[in-house]
Design goal:
Substrate binds at residues 53-55, 90, 202, 252-253. The protein is of the alpha/beta class. It has helices at residues 40-48, 55-70, 76-87, 94-107, 112-152, 178-185, 202-212, 225-230, 256-266, 297-300, 352-356, and strands at 13-16, 19-24, 33-37, 157-162, 190-195, 217-220, 236-239, 243-245, 250-253, 270-273, 279-280, 301-306, 309-314, 328-331, 338-341, 344-346. The protein has eleven helices and 16 strands.
Amino acid sequence: MTATVKLPPYATIRRDEDTVVILDQRELPFAVRFLTLRTLEDTADAIRTMAVRGAPLIGVTAAFGVALALQRDARDAALDDAITTLATTRPTAVNLHWALARMRQVLAPLVPAERAQAAWETAERLRNEDAALCHAIGETGLPWLQAAEKKRAGEPVRVLTHCNAGWVATCGIGTALAPVYLAHQAGIAVEVLASETRPRNQGLLTAWELSVAGIPAQVVTDNAAAWLLANGVVDLVIVGADRIAANGDVANKVGTALKAFAAHTYGIPFLVAAPTSTFDPDCPHGGAIPIEDRGSDELTHAVVRTANGVTRLPALPDGIGTGPNPAFDVTPARFVTAILTERGAIAPPLAGPWCRSH
Ligand code: MRU
């Protein structure tokens, strides 16, 4: 058993008396700022505007949002309203619904006077559980890096990832980056290529958090993946997930599927790292996963993060129209080499009943 990694350097979410403090991801990696959430509305807004993001973390944040709501009003109608408000903030990541279902299961049977304290305790439990799940996912993925190290014979293992599925997106050491952190801790030389992840540039968060941990990381353009995979630059692709359908189709940040297709073409393992709370047993296949469209604003304007703050600059001249802006895409199960979970690795396509037991 590998020793626990001393990460994350900042708590992504924590309770502070009757408020919740989150790491504000909108200004990362240029500024480390924290945002205090006092109400249900603050929490819903933080998720919607992506001050907080990443499937496991938005689930835990929503749980804390229920606690914030119930400390003001814990009657049945308030509980229903809190859960409905939070459930409609972002549609794709199923962890949000999973966490809200856990909250309802615990809180609905209680009398209102008991609910606020139970909500705080349950949200804390989900947060701690997430940290443990991340570590277990890392343990599941570590053998892939050990095998790649042998093949590399002295050269660093190269991992390509997309979006940010590290500690910034969770309450622990991340999902896709958890095996990387454990490999680094085990003395394996590992380097990460972080694809930019337009239009919101979550790849910068990945490169930043890895460099904070002393792991070499370089940003590459999203469109470089096929060339990098074709030319032996990458040993493994590891990404996170927002929802995994019962047949093993995977929804993750838009651009993920293209990497999977290229990895399949060039014979590079394509690994998806996610806790089992990311499986949606009620969703038969990827076509049934609701895909969030974040509107035209992210295309008409570039959000530029600088040392002086966040600036919105026009990116298109007037008169040029925009198309859809899906925030996620679906990788068909046949392109996924393995799904790394806290319970071990699973090779898709999944037998439906496997994830029906959760
Ligand atoms: O829109 P985002 O930034 O919330 O999307 C996040 C992703 O797609 C991540 O890869 C996924 O949530 C896994 S995070 C551990």
